[in-house]
Amino acid sequence: MTIREIAQRAGVSESAVSFALNNRPGVSEYTRRLILQVAEEMKWRPNSAAKALGGAKAGAIGLVFARPAETLGVEPFFLRLVSGIQSALSASSTALMFQVVENVEAETEIYRRWWSERRVDGVLVVDPRTDDPRPGLLAELGLPALLIGGPDPTGTLPSIWADDARAMTSIVEHLTSLGHNRIAHVAGLPELVHTQHRIEAFHRATGAQSVTTDYSDEAGRRVTRELLTAAEPPTAIVYDNDIMAVAGIGAAAALGRAVPADVSLVAWDDSPLCRLTHPMLTALVRDTYAFGRRAAQRLVEVMDGTATGDLEDELPRLTPRGSTQE
Amino acid sequence: MTIREIAQRAGVSESAVSFALNNRPGVSEYTRRLILQVAEEMKWRPNSAAKALGGAKAGAIGLVFARPAETLGVEPFFLRLVSGIQSALSASSTALMFQVVENVEAETEIYRRWWSERRVDGVLVVDPRTDDPRPGLLAELGLPALLIGGPDPTGTLPSIWADDARAMTSIVEHLTSLGHNRIAHVAGLPELVHTQHRIEAFHRATGAQSVTTDYSDEAGRRVTRELLTAAEPPTAIVYDNDIMAVAGIGAAAALGRAVPADVSLVAWDDSPLCRLTHPMLTALVRDTYAFGRRAAQRLVEVMDGTATGDLEDELPRLTPRGSTQE
DNA sequence: CTGTTAGCGCGTTCAC
DNA sequence: GTGAACGCGCTAACAG
Asked: Is the pLDDT of residue B317 over 90?
């Protein structure tokens, strides 16, 4: 099922077929219909390799997740993001090349490979870091990219991001309005930009320092225990993901502290997990599916050249549940 | 950075470059080294489109997840599987095309598209179903495929699978050895082949009927409540995933039933979730990362033609924790 | 044995 | 509406 075969079957030239299939002028309405019908019958689809070869696009965008294999745990965020991305991509029948790697160095290698092999037309970059080698590399390569979770500290890449600082402020305000004045923050990986934003906003709002972790349930448990057995235990704790918050609720129970009577807990990011605990966890909800969708749309615009600069996504909203009170 | 440029820079013909780069005879050792050095300097990589065009391979395999957007919840299985797949693929520097779709019909459309566009050389098919349209379609298309979780009921596709029946038997035996004789099974989607295998094995081992669900926490909670408030409540419950088991432990607590004193619980599939509960959940552990790795290797062999037929993966092993006793 | 020229694959595009 | 060249790498067939 090639253009050549269609041309033969329809009794026209290959270029006529190409024009007809791409809705371009140069063929009569009659011939166009004839060609389209033959192509339909033969279930013709363009060979993506040949298309890409003609200097055209690869018809795919790339997404790399850099994280050690051992920490590939519960990740509700991921599948939602990918799903949202694809809901936007399906419109332009663009494919997604997806790769999980161990670290950022491996990630940069993938970008080099994909771009030099012309496997992708652009990439979505997640988890911006302080001192991130990726924006520089991508700019140098000329590989179109959109930073998800940015804005890019180096100002190199366009980005889409939610305001973590304002979200943190809204959480602290909620807790303060409930009467809490000793609030703790169990943060995630310190090298991530959004972790820094949350830590700074938390410091501004409370004057207190955050504790950084690796996002694991183990860390959530340990830090919670340390916080609650300190001389002046906090009356409220904010966790940077749902896993740690769930572990925290368990740690509190193990220490005989009641939630929310003795201590209130808030999870950053909602998931079914947050509704499985007793009490259910107050959580910062964001529509990750829609976020992924918007990110992909934006990347397409960036590749077209119809958009540049940063795009702020809607603010995540706090959904109060049983774990906050007083 | 094309072959042409390298040829010019090295002062040789394009075919000499091609031979050198592909480690084929036809060039002197001296010339080969020269060419390789120039290619290295220019950071040359073959254009995958051009390569694929020459009747060669696309250099990618495909994976489609069919599930409605709403049920895209916590899915530890997924990221581990993908990660394992890629650990095997990286050896042959094969890429992964990944897609999430709403249903099996959309999935079959993706297969048609990918194959006619020559985007992939083969696909991994997950969640075999009773009355599954995919094996027939893939065989008809001639798209190489490996069924993950199968054996294929229609006997059309080669597969890799774990023995769900024996695994179920081992769970029931464990519970029986603890003295349980009223065991319930909260199964997953009835249209999945492995669900049927588990249900049949459960029936053979206990004589009892299973309850099918949609894997959601909501279903786990509801069914657990129904089971425990029945006239003759079970003393042990086996859940087909971790989410439902965690929901079940919550439902039991809400009814004032102690775990494991009043009722023992077992989760099929381990995840950090199973260690976040009190007591921790006894779980059927499988090495999903290794499973994905073996699946990808097997698919590569199937595409090479060096392997056919089914491959049985290692049996998942039960890891007793606090939620089973008596 | 070393190296070259020619042509293929498939869709696009430009001159005619 | 057509023929021909192009993009890029691979692979016969062929010459030194």
From this structure: yes
Q: A93-123, pLDDT tens digit by residue?
A: 788 998 888 889 999 999 998 888 888 999 9
Please identify residues in chain B, positions 9-28, with a C-beta within 7 angstroms of any atom of strand D: 14-15, 18-19, 21-22, 24, 26
Interval A16-41 mean pLDDT: 90
pLDDT one-digit tens code per residue, A242-272: 889 999 998 998 899 998 999 999 999 888 8
Q: Using a 7 Å CB cutoff, list residues 30-59 of A near strand D.
A: 30-32, 50, 53-55
Sheet of B159-161: strand order equals: A311-312, A159-161, A145-148, A122-126, A60-66, A95-101, B95-101, B60-66, B122-126, B145-148, B159-161, B311-312
Domains of chain A: 1-44 (1.10.260.40), 164-285 (3.40.50.2300)
Q: How far is A296 from chain B (nearest CA, A)?
A: 14
Residue whose Cα is closest to the C1' of D3:
A13
Quick one: A77 exposed, middle or buried, by C-beta within 10 A (0-12, 13-18, 19+)?
middle
Residues B235 and B100: their CA atoms lie apart, in Å, by: 39
The total of other beta-carbon atoms located within 10 Å of residue B132's CB is: 22
Instruction: Tell whether B153 lies on the interface with A, counting CB pairs under 8 A.
Output: no
CA B164 to chain centre: 14
For residue B124 the two structure tokens come to: 């991994």
Confidence band for A69, pLDDT divided at 50, 70 and 90? low
Q: What is the mean pLDDT of residues A66-82?
A: 69
Give B207→chain A minimum CA distance, Å. Answer: 31
